[in-house]
Amino acid sequence: MLKDLLGKKTLFFDGGMGTQLQANGLSVGAIPEELNIDKPELIVMIHENYLKAGADFITTNTFGANAHKMSRAKYPNTEMIKAAVKNADTARKNLGREKDSYIALDIGPIGELLAPIGTLSFDDAYELFKEQIVCVKDDIDLVIFETFGDLYELKAGVLAAKENCDKPVFVSVSFDKSGRTLTGTNPETYINVMEGLKVDAIGVNCSLGPKELEPVILTLLEKSHLPVLIQPNAGLPTLRDGKTVFELTPESFIEALSNVMNEGIAVIGGCCGTTPDFIRLEKENFPIDVKQREVPLRTAVSSSTMTVYLDEDVKVCGERLNPTGKKKLQAALREENYDMLISEAIAQEDAGAKVLDVNVGLPGINEAAVMRKVIPMLQEVVSIPLQIDSSNPAAIEAACRIYNGKPLINSVNGKDAVMEAVFPVAKKYGGAIIGLALSEEVPKLCEERVAIAKKIIAKAKEYGIPEKDLLIDCLTLTVSAQQAEAAETLKALKVVSDMGLSSTLGVSNISFGLPNRPLINRTFLTLAMHSGLKMPIINPLDRSLMDCIDAFNVIMNVDAGCENYIKNQENVVVQTVTVQKTAAGEGASVPAAGGKKDVGFCIIKGLKDEITAVTVEELEKTDPMVLINETIIPALNKVGRDYDSGKIFLPQLIQAAETAKVAFAEVQKHFTVSSEKKGPVILCTVEGDIHDIGKNIVKVVCESYGYEIIDLGKDIPVDSVVDAYKEYKPKAIGLSALMTTTVENMKRTIAALRANDCDVPIMVGGAVLTEEIAKEIDADYYTEDAMSLVNLFKELGV
Amino acid sequence: MDNKEIFNRIFPTACRYMRVDPIKVDMEFNDKAFTTFETLIDNVRFKGQHEYVSVEDLLNVDKELTSKSEDLTFYLEGCSEAVIFATTLGVNVDAYSKKLQVNDMSTAVIYDALASALLEFYTDEYEDGLNLGAHTFRFAPGYGDIPIELNYIIIDAFSISKKIGIYKASNNMMLPQKSMITFCGMGKEVAPTCAHCVRLKNCSLRKENLRCYNS
Q1: What residues have CB less than 8 Å from A437, skipping those under 6 apart?
Q2: Could you tell me the CATH number of the domain that includes residue B201?
Q3: Which of A169, A254, A320, A759 is the most buried (most CB within 10 A)?
Q4: Shortest Cα distance from B167 to chain A (angstroms)?
Q5: Which residue, among A792, A788, A774, A793, has the nearest Cα to A735 in the 3D structure?
Q6: What is the CATH number of domain A310-569?
């Protein structure tokens, strides 16, 4: 019944519950959900008043009824939820509205931010929502998630509802005046992600009044294909006689909605400050039939804060998060050391990538488990969407589930078994998918590639996946081996583009086996873009490729006024250079600026951008070991002494340490056998403590002195520290804590390590630690700062 | 007030957090700090919320907790009511800090110190904008013997997560990290001086002849 009316006839939600409860004496700090049991007659009366005013929906008094928020309540949360649903049912029975009103189980935010921003895990959030839904799933007509500010938390909620209940799911978030949610999501991104998750209505509520919400409401109406729900506050809150009141009357509230009223809103209600009179006037003024909107489908993927459209100008997908052919990254992934992956991700985003491909496939590693770890890590530091690259459906599913946003899946091909394994995942989590024009046989001609693309599109449709959620990869083959096929790829791109589809290509495959590969890559990229390529998968750190795109955008009139081109190219000095191979590899080294700065000077001055070139030059005439012992270490020692004596300060110390680290990395390339590393040392911030800047400072400084650091991260459970001790057998363990309240966890961690026969020194540090506290909690050493720790390591021979 | 003016106002406080002597700072460091500050400002989405409550309501918000604190009673003694402030720089500041900590730790330290100082500055401005009349200086859970657990109670009681996006994290910490919950008493003027401070006898700043307020 509800599904028949939704989006066709205007439906009415109720108004504010908190406002009504406060008017009936709810005191500061009291828990509204307890009233479901303590004063059911009050709750029933409020519901009845809204129903009499014309509401079609009864929102249960359960906004905060999750187990976390209700930990201080006098009743179990599920009991309060059951009582709330019973009250709603009583109200509609009392008024004979059983058949034409709907009980909406109201679910608000948990009140904690999800990891990686916060500490609550995605899975725990899911379980909290699940508990709220399962206990009443047969007695409600729909679930409404409202007033959410965190898209990720909302995703956990929607999945909990969809996987545990068959009722419609409405979602509604709060936007502030900047047009973003509290965690930075814009309306386009909210729409793209929630449509992917296939909710039944999408909306906005709370935070602002109807006038202030108008831009967001119009965006929802313009860009969403779902029924739009709005529940504004009664204007902005003001203080009158020491009490918060809302500025709009029911009449002025309706007046403020006049611009959007006839634009296709499907469900209207009210939030803070609204009363039955507001709903009554809405019912009198809104049209009976919902205006039907025509919204074009787009090819778009999202992170939590950004949506990237892949059907307009060229967008680069960064290819470097892939261990294929990269020994260091392979080793790092096997050792569960993700620093390199994270640095690469940041570098690619900074270089202009708009999507990042993530591939962690290596023989012998649990790809699904690694995806679950690295996706949140990457999303913590980059804001662009990710492309989940795997041939393992379980890994794709694990990544899509934990991903915050609408992912791009790389890929399916024309084989039925592959599509049948991946399309259900894409459908469930709302991912866009790359369809690779490859089947049992490698296609040679354009027509064969297009035929496979069409097969993929048809199969996707069977799963309800629109063709706009597909990007076709027209398959790059190596031109040195299959020369005729390169032109076929370009032809296929043109056909796919003419079909109105977006396309992608891994560009650099084209040039394997040929000299001066960049030239072939650049030329192929330019031709491919001209044939309609929308998303080249390339190395964005390769300026020559990125420059090609800049130039293409100028010539094709995409870069209006050549603005972007000029910004990127104005400082480029045009030279005619003949590049010849050197013994060390391709290209020649760049001389140090001015030619006078040496490695020691660069470290002392913290010239991180110049140190590589200077080190390379110095290594041409100096033995690596000599450079370390006679230049780098003395320079670091001078920096350390200057810091101790107050001549330089912490930021300069760190700058020098980071510079030295770069120099070390360069020197290490010149050792025929790997140089001896000091350590390893385990570092972490203890359980319950999310402040890790101090630990990170220590890490940088120690690494600059050549110590291998195993960084377990922040908020690390006691058992995980013990496990790491057993696994890595470190020479020392460093524990950090900022808060007094987490020192207790530090003590527990040390006790657990001792109980497991830990015989290496345990150092502690952090803002609240002192020598005395360190003794009290049984640590071996306390160090005041990073330099003191390095000095202690030297003293102990770690 | 333009960015340069705000920077000049908060830089000495940020230096104190970095244990940097502002007098010894050279132009290079100053320029780097200002560039960092401009990035910080781009990431800030300051939000503030205030609530007027009777002293009785504030103490009743969780009697078990508030009754443990002598300092709370001391500061609010003689006040007619209290004002609760919740202020935050928003989640973007945390996110960018994390990114800096991966690839530029030196700047991350400066950024973090500037962010802390900026939050205090904005909170002062927010308070000034309310024209409160006679009031005590702001103090916060965790200060003196005022239980830090009050942060959680206040966040729930005044729907602070919903209104401005300050959330509870484990161990009574809050997110975003650059967030504060503070309160002041109304009806009597008490300026922030060491003489009025419960930490008078064991203040580490005082031992170094430094102050946590502008004298």
Answers
A1: A413, A414, A443, A448, A449, A450, A452, A453, A472, A473, A474, A475, A492
A2: 3.40.109.40
A3: A169
A4: 5
A5: A774
A6: 3.20.20.20
DSSP H/E element including A664: helix A650-668
**Which residue in this structure is represented by tokens 């503070």?**
B182
Specify whether the CB–CB gap between A192 and A304 falls below 8 A.
Answer: no
Number of DSSP helices (H) and strands (E) in chain A, helices first = 31, 25
Task: Quote the domain boundaries for residue B57.
Answer: 3-207
CA A84 to chain centre: 35
CB-based contact A28 B61, cutoff 8 Å? yes
**Third-level CATH fold of A593-668:** 1.10.1240
- As for the ipTM of the complex, it is 0.83
Q: Which residue of B has its CA nearest to A342?
A: B102
C-alpha A390/C-alpha A281 separation (Å) is: 54
Q: Could you check whether A2-285 and A310-569 share the same CATH topology?
A: yes
**Dist CA A793 CA B2 (whole Å):** 46
Q: Of A602-611, A716-725, B87-96, which gets the smallest average pLDDT?
A: A602-611
Q: Which residue has tokens 């101790």? A: A644
Question: Cβ contact (<8 Å) for A347 and B175?
Answer: no
SS3 content of chain B, % helix, strand, coil (to 5): 55, 15, 30
* 3-state per-residue secondary structure call for B189-205: CECCCHHHCCCHHHCHH
B155, B161, B171: residue with CB nearest A689: B171
Ordered by start, the domain boundaries in chain A are: 2-285, 310-569, 593-668, 678-796
pLDDT digits 0-9 by tens, A329-362: 999 999 888 988 999 999 999 999 999 999 999 9
CATH number of A2-285: 3.20.20.330
Amino acid, res. A786: A
Q: Is the pLDDT of residue A585 over 50?
A: no
Q: How far apart are CA A465 and CA A430, in angstroms?
A: 9
Residues A619, A613 contacting (CB under 8 angstroms): no
Residue of A236, A381, A711, A747 to mutate, testing the B interface (most B Cβ within 10 Å of its Cβ): A381
How far does B57 lie from chain A, in Å, by closest CA?
7
In sequence order, the 6+-apart residues with CB closer than 8 A to the CB of A326 are: none
E strands, A2-125, are 11-12, 57-59, 102-107
Cα A656 from chain centre: 32
Using DSSP's 3-state secondary structure scheme, residue A612 falls into: helix
**Amino acid identity of A735?**
L
Cβ–Cβ < 8 Å for A685, A714: yes
Q: Which amino acid is at A131?
A: E
Structural domain includes residue B213: no
Minimal CA–CA distance to A263: which of A221, A210, A318, A207? A221
CB-based contact (8 Å) between A277 and chain B?
no
Domain count, chain B: 1
**What span, in angstroms and rounded, lies between the C-alpha atoms of A316 and A245?**
50
Report the C-alpha gap between A422 and A394 in whole angstroms.
Answer: 9
In chain A, which among 122-161 make CB contacts under 8 A with chain B? 147, 149
A770 touches chain B (CB under 8 A): no
Q: Which residues contact A788 (CB under 8 A, 6 or more apart)?
A: none
CATH of A678-796, one of 3.30.379.10, 3.40.50.280, 3.90.1010.10, 1.10.8.60: 3.40.50.280
A 10 A CB-CB count for A600 gives 22
Q: Which amino acid is at A246?
A: F
Say yes or no for a CB contact (<8 Å) between B173 and A339: no
Question: pLDDT by residue (tens digit) across A587-634?
Answer: 333 344 444 678 999 998 888 888 998 999 888 888 887 888 788 888
Q: Is residue B177 part of a domain?
A: yes
Whether B51 is covered by a domain: the verdict is yes
* A651/B107 Cβ within 8 A: yes
Q: Which of residues 28-57 of A touch B (CB under 8 A)?
A: 28-29
